[in-house]
Every structure is written in structure tokens, then in C-alpha cells.
Amino acid sequence: MATNPVSDNRHSPYRFSVEQYYRMAEVGVIAPDARTELIEGEICDMPPIGCRHAATVSWLHRQLVKAVGERAVVFEQSPLRLSRHSEPQPDLMLLRPRRDRYSEAHPTARDTLLVIEVSDSTWLYDREVKMPLYAAYGVREAWLIDVGVKTLNCFGAPHGGAFVEQTLVQPPGPLVVPSLDIRIDLTRLFNFGDYSIS
């Protein structure tokens, strides 16, 4: 009788740890300029950053810094250590201030106040893989921005490995970050500039 390799414990896939992932980069198994992230032990390629994606992330970064002042730290496209086998790189993170300014260790789920993913060609991956991952490890709140169809999904209240609350905001306006009780004006999120060359 044939066995199903998916359910057969003898054929479980190997999962890399964060330490192994970093070691592979150090010895050149992963190219220095490769854009990758570690998701539940799997090394996942990240697509090149398009113009709309980069411009949106940059604009959001400025809005967050203006809104939070010294009450939080804003990180852009930096590692988030969720577990021994998961270290994604969200587009933006709003973090609790820490004495070492995150120079001694990457932020964890406990440090995060808000995670933001900006999607151009990666919406399905961000929604079906990364949002559940953030919820599973207790990230308080996550936003998923689709620059293609100009939508913003807000996820919150992680429980049982999923976000219990989900809100579609269209068009976006001033939004509150509950953990800080601050408002961030996103009215111009999808029309902050002219992409054409004049």
C-alpha cells in the first residue's frame, strides 16, 4: 500500500533555523544581494521592489514617523524574529522603544505595535501566508495594503492562530493605532504623488 508523503512522518520536509539561515548567508550559499526571508523554516524569495511599492513604503514611513514622534520606533524592511524558524521582513514595523534601539537583537512579536505589508504583486502571499503567520505569533495589529486595487485591510485581535478582526478600509482616511491611541492620516495613501514623468 502506497503512503502519502505529505502525511507520512518519515518524509517530513527539513526546516531551517534562523541560525542556519544566517550561516548560509555568511558562507555564500545565499547570495549577499539576495532578497529572501525565512518563513516556518522555508527560505522564500522576495520579488524585486517596484516603483509604486517603494514610493508607498517611503511615504508611509514619513507619515508614521510624524505621527508617533518619540512614542515608537519605525523600521522599514527589517527582520522580525518570530520564532526559531521564522524571520519575515515586513515592509514597515511600528515598535516599542527599547533601550538598545534594537542594536543587540531583532524585534520580536512582543515589541511590535503594528506591522504593515505593502503588496504590488504579492497580495495573495501576504494575505494567505504572512498575515496568518503574524497572528500565530501574537502580532497585535497588521495592515495589508494593495497598491494595485487601492485597498487597505486592517487585521487585529490575534486569537487561536488567526486575526479575529478584519476591516476593509476604502478609501483610507485617518486611522487609529489602538496600542498607541494615535491617528495616522492616510487620506493621500494612493494619491500622494504623480507616477508619470513630466
Automatic annotation (TrEMBL):
Pfam families, from UniProt?
Uma2 (PF05685)
Which Gene3D superfamilies does the UniProt record give? tt1808, chain A
Q: Does the keyword Metal-binding apply?
A: no
Q: Which residues form the Putative restriction endonuclease domain?
A: 18-179
InterPro entries according to UniProt? Nuclease_put_TT1808, Restrct_endonuc-II-like, Uma2
Q: Which PANTHER family does this UniProt record tie to the protein? A: SLR1083 PROTEIN (PTHR35400:SF1)
In its UniProt entry, what is this protein called? Uma2 family endonuclease
Protein species of origin: Steroidobacter flavus
